[in-house]
Amino acid sequence: MTVNKSDGSNLITTYDRPGDYLPGNGSSFAEQMLSDDVITPVIEQRTLISRNGTLRLISGTFTNYQKYNSSYWRPNMVYQLEAPAPLSDLTRSSFSSAGVPVIHPNYKPAAYFDKYDQASGVLLSRHLADGAPESYFWGYNNQYPIAKVAGADYDAAKQFVDVALLNNPATSQGQLQTELNKLRTADGIKNALVTTFTFSPLVGMTSTRDAKGETTIYDFDEFQRLINIRDKDGNITKHTDYHYLGQ
What we know:
By secondary structure, this protein is mostly beta strands. The protein has two domains: 1-113, no CATH class; 117-247, no CATH class. It has four helices and 16 strands. The radius of gyration is 22 Å and the shape is globular. The chain starts with a strand and ends in an 8-residue tail after the last strand.
């Protein structure tokens, strides 16, 4: 993808997927993904700037993938390019003869994906290279994330809630809110920042409650279009009307 800038330079973004790497002995994760017909995940994304015929590398990410539960591929680590200025070294990622990733020397670890649900493959816990862990709870039969807990990993946080109740589509909105509130009040993770969400399946998000406890409510019309955003007191902070062209 190329973006032409007003100063005459061009921004070029490239995306390398499993099929873009040279075949080896079949041991690299890219080749194994390809053999499983997993072809769409981006392994490396790079952005370069072209100015006066000279290319420089300005940003990039490399994602390492792993197969979980012998059934699904997910990221287990992300590297990010770190450089004080655009780089003349345009090295693209590759794999050694042993299947080991060979990446740009300026790539540094950025994020680790620590835990996935074994059955569904949804992300449960991750942490940044220089930060605290984040855990995620899912609801509506693992369709939607209903809580993000910053500052506690999943195994530490899950002991304070009934995970089966959270994920049961038959759980009422009131029951869901009551159970999620336990994450905010549990002494064992009292320093964690908790954000929660509720949804109307196949429609959209119906509410959020941020780490400060402030609630935002979302209303939809009969055509499942967002019409109102309301604050915790029910006051409409934003309203949207929909009109057909010519009305």
